[in-house]
Amino acid sequence: MARNRKDRDSWGSFTDKATYDWSSEEEEPDGRARPIQVLVVKDDHTFELDEAALSRILLAEEVHNREVVAISVAGAFRKGKSFLMDFMLRYMYNHASEEWLGESEEPLTGFSWRGGSERETTGIQIWSEVFLVDKPDGRKVAVLLMDTQGTFDSQSTLRDSATVFALSTMISSMQVQYSGFGPNDPTVITSTVALALTTPLVAGSSPARGRIGTEATRLHTYPTILLISLLPDLCLEIDREFINNLQILVPWLLGPKNLDVKEINGSNITCRGLLEYFKAYIQIYQGEELPHPKSMLQATAEANNLAAVAAARDLYNKKMEQVCGGDRPFLAPAELQARHSDIREEALQVFRGVKKMGGEEFSRRYLLQLEGEVDEVFVQYIKHNDSKNIFHAARTPATLFVVIFIMYVAAGITGFVGVDIIASVCNMILGLTLITLCTWAYIRYSGEYRELGQVIDQVAGALWDQVVKSHSFLKGLTQRIKRNDSRKG
């Protein structure tokens, strides 16, 4: 909750030094963008990925197929990482204006932050709105902002700190690592954590509290790591120097030409693919010990192949929706089968065309998984297409009407000739069928007792199929008799 702000500016005055009241704004109203906790740290020091929340962000229709730029800030706790992230948010929302920093009285909202010695952020939080940015080469990329738990707080173990840092580093395409007191601060991430990474990480640094500009070296490694010392001690005052540095750093970091797309094994990663990497990486950090590089390489290879499966499956679903989706008319079964075969092969080619890790033998099981998933989805498309066929939809009532008519005629004939027992049986079947027809109509109208409706459809379908088979058998028998007669003649 926000504190009383009557005697202070929002983030310090441009002209006069002002002591900052270190607290975050109240939570955003429902429906507005806000930080979402995607990596939860439990009391027993285990980690849980909120896959549903992460999926809502990364699988949104407008971003799921976009190449992703994942930006995070890492470092020791209580150094102002969330504070810096909020200025990044302010830039992303107002980058078109030279006055993106806003007025000094404007509240700094976004990721939660406050003063004091107790940690504020735990696990990993992601801003719920993914920003779409046009790169100079014409590509539109999705920019994801991640805030991470600070390392070495009094409530976390070394393994906790190492896990959060390693996960954020493996997920990020750009990561800012900094210390509030300078690059030589002993609380800066040490090699103990870096040893858990499979890719060598190189960090560049600017002078302590120095200006960020041409002096800063942006190293194009994977991921891009920036080690900076920009923020003052949380007990100090924010002055003009800090504001000047901030106005240089944030546009330089988030400018379209400087955004690095997440890349693994030479392939750019989409938001959907990043979800697979999240799920794969969290699995290897569930044990009591930090994973070995070999385990991390294995997880990366699995996620790489799963991302290829997801991309191919998306293509299949998208094209099949265009063929026989909800607003498309009924398609002849033979035509549907032919279109499915073509699109299925196209999806398999997409999978084969993705640059994958682990080798051909390793990827084969994922190819089989894709084939199985595509075939299962096709069965659903067949049912959906059949439901559009007016004759298929009318099969159950038509079958029941035929049974009622036959039983009515049979009861009349047998009653007329005096076979009362058979007439009674026919009348009983007629009554039961009529009740069944009324029940089916009620289920279709109300949507209740759907399981019973499915049973009625199955029984009616079985009767229909039996009649069709009998008709085919009799037709074939008649043709054979005619051929035999013609031979004798």
Question: What separation lies between the terminal Cα atoms?
Answer: 101 Å
What is the CATH architecture descriptor of the largest domain? 3-Layer(aba) Sandwich
CATH class of the largest domain: Alpha Beta
Structural class: alpha/beta
Tell me the total number of β-strands: 11
**Unreliable sequence segments:** 1-29, 181-222, 229-236
CATH topology of the largest domain: Rossmann fold
Transmembrane segments: 398-416, 422-443
Keywords: Endoplasmic reticulum, GTP-binding, Hydrolase, Magnesium, Membrane, Nucleotide-binding, Transmembrane, Transmembrane helix
Domain GB1/RHD3-type G: 65-176
Protein name: Atlastin GTPase 1
Short description:
The protein is α/β, with parallel strands linked by helices and 489 residues long. It has 13 helices and 11 strands. The chain has 3 domains: 35-291, P-loop containing nucleotide triphosphate hydrolases (Rossmann fold, 3-Layer(aba) Sandwich); 299-391, Up-down Bundle (Methane Monooxygenase Hydroxylase, Chain G, domain 1), CATH 1.20.58; 394-488.
